[in-house]
Write a structure and sequence with these properties.
Layout: H1 3-26, H2 29-44, H3 54-72, E1 95-97, H4 103-108, H5 115-121, H6 126-137, H7 142-149, H8 153-170, H9 178-194, H10 197-203, E2 204-213, E3 221-224, H11 226-237, E4 242-248, E5 251-257, E6 263-272, E7 275-282, H12 285-288
Parallel strand pairs: 2-7
Antiparallel strand pairs: 1-4, 2-3, 4-5, 5-6, 6-7
Helix pairs in contact: 1-2, 1-3, 2-3, 3-6, 3-7, 6-7, 6-8, 7-8, 9-10, 9-11, 10-11
Length: about 300
């Protein structure tokens, strides 16, 4: 086996891990794949004979690539849900069968990286996001992150601490019991289909927020409060002929289809204290077409 083939094999052993890092940094599966590919190009052009920990070296390389990608995105807004055209833009969801994740999805979604968490990560500046993701999610020491940012280890620690407070305040850990969360999602579906407004309000947090990303073809929506979200849920249920339970970013969710079998939405639920605190709904036909929903068959 040639040195290039051996290096390629060692890289492939790290690919799933690197993709997980990039997904948390970018919230986009296609961009994550681009970042991982860029890391391979950098590796193939580098002399890594003296690198003792190739996994750690590649993690920081992917971090640097993602940092550059974030910095070249359009100017960050205070409300990161809106892209440069003013459209609501949600992170890419990862859909799995309701019975569980496959091994690759388990690696990608370790630590239950929900859509709500990715939305909050989008509120962070690039440097904060890198410091938080690499240290808090992948245990990379601050003295290894600091050179990527061009900061001191102490400053990098402060960046991660600031990001951590933002995340804990805006995206607290969801309820732990998976079965209870499934029951709440099922109750939400039943109430929506039945047009039971009071039952919906009862399982929605009073401050619930619903975010819908329709892309350029369908209008995006942002709704606040139990009454407004309940009304919207009842209206949307009239259009969904079929709703299948799924895992969306490792938490109970729903994929809705029209009568002809085309996907209408992927819906992610954030549940805390026995109530739904957030609904993140992807209805963009272009992005839905790129999600493998065959995992829900059978």
């Amino acid at each position: 086996m040639s040195e290039t083939e051996l290096l390629a094999r060692r890289f492939e052993e790290q690919r799933s891990h690197l993709r997980a890092v990039a997904y948390r940094m970018l919230g986009s599966l296609s961009e994550a794949d681009d970042a991982v590919q860029e890391a391979w190009l950098k590796l193939s052009r580098s002399d890594v004979a003296a690198v003792e920990n190739l996994g750690g070296w590649l993690t920081t390389v992917v971090g640097r690539v993602c940092l550059d990608m974030l910095r070249t995105r359009s100017t960050r807004r205070e409300d990161p849900l809106h892209d440069q055209d003013g459209q609501i833009r949600l992170p890419d969801p990862i859909v799995a069968n309701a019975d569980g994740l496959d091994p690759e999805q388990e690696i990608l979604l370790a630590d239950s990286v929900g859509i709500a968490l990715l939305v909050v990560l989008d509120t962070l500046g690039p440097a904060e996001r890198l410091a938080f993701v690499l240290h808090d999610m992948f245990a990379v020491p601050f003295d290894e992150i600091a050179p990527v940012l061009g900061r001191t280890a102490a400053t990098t620690r402060q960046l991660a601490s600031r990001a951590r407070r933002r995340v804990q305040g805006a995206a607290p850990a969801p309820d732990a019991d998976l079965n209870e969360r499934r029951q709440i999602v099922e109750a939400f579906l039943a109430a929506s289909r039945g047009g039971d407004f009071d039952a919906l309000v009862a399982i929605l947090d009073p401050e619930v927020v619903a975010r819908s990303d329709g892309g350029t073809l369908r209008p995006g929506l942002l709704r606040h409060g139990a009454a407004e979200v309940a009304s919207q849920a009842i209206m949307f249920a009239r259009f969904a002929e079929v709703a299948r339970p799924a895992l969306v970013n490792a938490t109970p969710g729903v994929v809705s289809f029209s009568q002809d079998g085309s996907p209408l939405s992927v819906m992610a639920f954030s549940i805390r204290g026995g109530r739904i605190t957030a609904l993140d709904i992807l209805t963009d036909p272009e992005r839905l077409a790129h999600i493998d929903l065959s995992v829900l068959d059978g």
